[in-house]
Design goal:
By secondary structure, the protein is of the alpha+beta class. It contains 14 helices and eight strands. The chain is elongated. Belongs to the binding-protein-dependent transport system permease family.
């Protein structure tokens, strides 16, 4: 029989020639290509970490060895303890809220006609730098409602349900017919009698802020045959000087809308509102009562919410952060949502599940890997938050909004203590490491699942 034909090269001889693909490149050649990157990584990452560890063991000048003294000082400083507490709030609240809001927006934008345009608007804050966003929200949170958008909305909503008084600073003169009562009200010193007139002079309201409906005050007319009480409540002040105290003068204005109550034995037996000229009348049953001007007449205008005060400043800055990063979360979650198997969602609906059940039991579990990516990314981001916290809070509330990155900057460049600043940086690095390890572990787990 003829000998079997053999190929020019056997498999063994082919393998002996060495690797032919990038993935089978010799390890030494791979190290050679990676060497420039490893050098840069060591110079830009590893060396600063090691230098900071060493520097944190010396005093502010760098000459005296203090061991762990900088770390003890760090944890005994009230400003740093406040920064650690605020960082904990940031770590829990900001990533959670931004991820949840991004999930809701991603689901909703799939159901509206102009979803792409809406996504563009929500993602647009990501194109703005942190510094510019901080300046924007510093103006948004201004206390003056005429400048701050947040307080303009708050004041509008408040005044819709509880209108402020036009006479917040009005008050009687000393030794007048009125005296101060509890809660900011004013009472007549003596009871009034039916068939008489009463004058209630007030001062304290600037002429240029009097209501447009105010008219020149008029002396009260005598009560009719049925008795009762007639009176006038007015601004007992003549612009430009002149006039007589406790007497209605032609140039003085009435207090339109001022509420007057007749109080007898602690109960209101009658009430009235003053007209544009300040005149009012009460029925005869007010006989023997004392007249009261309730505190509602003098309620201060609602000035809005102290967004940048000590109690709310951290939450306000977190709100600015969520405004910026909710779009980032929405885009990533939307990409994951687009890759979901639609047959599973339709099968759930066919089985009778409502939209909320489909969202909670099908959509969210399937999006769990994407949600994990977004959440971990934002957690790493907020641990080193600096720009917004440095720009938004005013000087009076900056200590209350303090975080570790800002405290690190102030300690190093304002106080000039490089030792404690290095200790803060190492502590901040230690806080970031567990989150990074969690992210690496998640990536490895996903790779194993993909290989299966």
């Amino acid at each position: 029989m003829p000998a079997p034909r053999t190929s020019p090269e056997s498999p063994k001889s082919s393998r002996d020639k060495g690797p032919t693909s990038v993935t089978r490149t010799r390890r030494s050649l791979a190290v050679l290509f990676l060497l420039p990157a490893l050098v840069l990584l060591g110079a830009l990452v590893l060396y600063p970490i090691v230098w900071n560890v060493v520097r944190s063991l010396f005093d502010s000048s760098g000459d005296g060895f203090v061991g762990l003294g900088n770390y003890r000082e760090m944890f005994s400083d009230p400003n740093i303890r406040t920064a650690i507490k605020n960082n904990a709030i940031w770590l829990v609240v900001a990533p959670t809220v931004a991820t949840a809001l991004g999930l809701v927006l991603a689901v909703l934008t799939e159901r509206i006609k102009w979803g792409t345009a809406f996504k563009l608007l929500v993602f647009m804050p990501m194109a703005i730098s942190m510094l510019a966003s901080g300046i924007i929200f510093r103006l948004v949170y201004e206390q003056d409602p005429d400048r701050g958008v947040a307080n303009a909305v708050a004041v509008t909503v408040h005044d819709t349900f509880a209108e402020s008084s036009a006479f917040p600073k009005a008050h009687p003169r000393p030794r007048s017919a009125l005296e101060a009562a509890k809660g900011g009200a004013f009472l007549t010193r003596e009871p009034v009698r039916s068939g008489t007139t009463v004058l209630l002079p007030l001062v304290g309201v600037a002429p240029d802020v009097m209501p447009d409906s105010a008219r020149p005050a008029a002396a009260p007319a005598a009560p009719g045959k049925d008795g009762g009480i007639a009176g006038t409540v007015w601004q007992d002040f003549t612009k430009g000087g002149g006039g007589t105290l406790d007497k209605v003068d032609p140039k003085e204005l009435g207090y339109p809308g001022m509420r007057i109550e007749a109080v007898k034995d602690g109960e209101v037996v009658a009430s009235a509102k003053a007209g544009a000229d300040g005149r009012f009348t009460l029925p005869a049953k007010a006989d023997g009562a004392r007249l009261r001007l309730p505190a509602d007449n003098f309620r201060e205008p609602y000035g809005g919410i102290d967004w940048l005060g000590p109690s709310l400043v951290t939450w306000s800055v977190i709100g600015a952060y969520v405004w910026m990063w909710a779009g980032f979360a929405m885009v990533l979650i939307g990409a994951g949502l687009a890759g979901l198997p639609r047959e599973l969602l339709e099968a759930a609906r066919v089985d009778g599940a409502g939209e909320w059940q489909v969202f909670r039991r099908v959509t969210v579990p399937l999006l769990a890997p994407v949600l994990g990516v977004v959440l971990v990314t934002l957690m790493i981001n907020v641990l080193k938050i600096f720009d917004l916290v440095y720009v938004i809070p005013p000087g009076s509330a900056r200590d209350d909004a303090n975080v570790l990155a800002v405290e690190l900057y102030n300690t190093a460049f304002v106080d000039g203590d490089a030792g404690v600043a290095s200790a803060i940086s190492i502590f901040l690095f230690i806080l970031v490491v567990p989150v990074m390890l969690l992210n690496i572990r998640r990536l490895r787990r996903e790779r194993k699942e993909e290989r299966r």
